[in-house]
C-alpha cells in the first residue's frame, strides 16, 4: 500500500461511525508494524484526544499481534533459544527495546565468568564461580520486597535492575552456564523454580543424571534431591519427573507467562491478563 492510501485510512480513524472505525482499524492491523512510524507522526501532530487514544490502542494491538507471531514462530522452530523466548516476552511490555543490548548484557556476564574459568574445575567449583560473578560482581538478587511485581518477569528489566523472581534469575543463570558449556537447566518445581546441574548435555531421563540442584533466587545455593523431595512433601505432591527433572524451554516460557497473569490479575489489570492468556493459549 502506498503513502496516499495509508494516509486516507489514518484520516478515517476519527470517524464517529463505529463500523467504519473497526474496519479501518482491522485493515491497519493487518498491515503490520511498518505503519507504526506514520501513526506515531499523526499522533504527535494531533490535538484530538479521541484520535490520539485510538492511535495508541491501535499501535498496541499491532505490536501485540507481532509478539504473538514471533512467539508462535519461536515455538514452531523448536524453541531452542531460551533467551530469544524471553526477549519476545519482554517485547510485549517494551516493544521498542534494543534486543542486542539484552544479548550484550548476557554476553558480558558470560565473559566475566569465562575469564576466571579453569578447565579442571569441578562442578561445585564452577557453580561457585558463576555465583561469584552473578551475585557479587554483577549484584543480582531476588526481589523479596516486591515479589509479584510484573517487572520481575521481563528480562530487560531484570538485567537493568539486577532484581528478579526465581524463574528469571534461574533463566539468566542457566543461559550464562550453557554459554560456558556447563550443563545447568531449569526445573519446573512448583512454587519455586530451580536449576539442575546434570552429568552431561544430553536430555536427562532419570534422577541419576542430576548431580545436584541450585537455587538461583538464594544466591546459587546448592542442595540435593532429598531437599526437593522434602519440599514436595510439604506441598503434598509426589516427586514425579515433571517436578524433579529438567523441563523444556516452552515449559519455562509458559511459567514466566503464568507468573505475569498472576501479577496483572492481582493488580486488577484485566486487559493485560487477557492478552497474556492469549500468549499462553498459543503455547498450548
Automatic annotation (TrEMBL):
Q: Which InterPro entries match?
A: SirB1_N (IPR032698)
Where in this chain does the record put each Protein SirB1 N-terminal domain?
A: 101-258
Lineage: superkingdom: Bacteria
What is any Pfam family matched here?
Transglut_core2
Q: Which family does it belong to?
A: Belongs to the UPF0162 family.
| Descriptive protein name | Protein SirB1 N-terminal domain-containing protein
What does the organism's lineage look like at the top? Bacteria, Pseudomonadati, Bacteroidota, Sphingobacteriia, Sphingobacteriales
Amino acid at each position: 500500500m502506498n503513502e496516499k492510501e495509508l494516509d486516507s485510512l489514518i484520516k478515517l480513524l476519527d470517524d464517529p461511525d463505529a463500523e467504519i472505525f473497526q474496519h479501518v482499524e482491522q485493515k491497519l492491523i493487518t498491515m503490520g508494524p511498518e505503519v507504526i512510524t506514520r501513526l506515531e507522526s499523526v499522533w504527535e501532530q494531533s490535538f484530538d484526544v479521541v484520535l490520539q487514544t485510538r492511535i495508541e490502542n491501535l499501535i498496541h494491538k499491532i505490536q501485540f499481534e507481532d509478539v504473538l507471531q514471533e512467539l508462535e514462530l519461536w515455538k514452531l522452530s523448536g524453541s531452542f533459544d531460551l533467551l530469544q523466548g524471553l526477549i519476545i516476552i519482554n517485547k510485549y511490555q517494551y516493544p521498542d527495546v534494543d534486543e542486542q543490548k539484552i544479548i550484550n548484557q548476557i554476553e558480558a556476564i558470560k565473559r566475566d565468568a569465562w575469564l576466571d574459568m579453569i578447565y579442571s574445575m569441578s562442578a561445585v567449583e564452577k557453580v561457585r564461580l558463576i555465583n561469584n560473578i552473578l551475585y557479587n560482581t554483577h549484584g543480582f538478587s531476588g526481589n523479596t520486597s516486591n515479589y509479584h511485581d510484573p517487572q520481575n518477569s521481563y528480562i530487560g528489566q531484570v538485567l537493568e535492575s539486577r532484581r528478579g523472581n526465581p524463574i528469571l534469575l534461574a533463566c539468566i543463570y542457566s543461559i550464562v552456564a550453557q554459554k560456558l558449556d556447563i550443563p545447568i537447566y531449569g526445573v519446573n518445581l512448583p512454587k519455586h523454580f530451580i536449576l539442575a546441574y546434570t552429568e552431561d548435555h544430553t536430555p536427562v531421563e532419570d534422577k541419576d543424571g542430576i548431580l545436584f540442584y541450585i537455587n538461583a533466587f538464594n544466591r546459587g545455593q546448592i542442595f540435593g534431591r532429598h531437599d526437593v523431595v522434602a519440599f514436595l512433601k510439604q506441598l503434598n505432591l509426589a516427586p514425579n519427573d515433571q517436578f524433579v527433572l529438567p523441563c523444556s524451554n516452552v515449559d519455562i516460557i509458559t511459567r514466566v507467562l503464568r507468573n505475569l497473569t498472576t501479577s496483572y490479575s492481582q493488580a486488577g489489570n484485566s486487559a493485560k491478563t487477557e492478552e497474556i492468556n492469549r500468549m499462553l493459549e498459543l503455547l498450548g
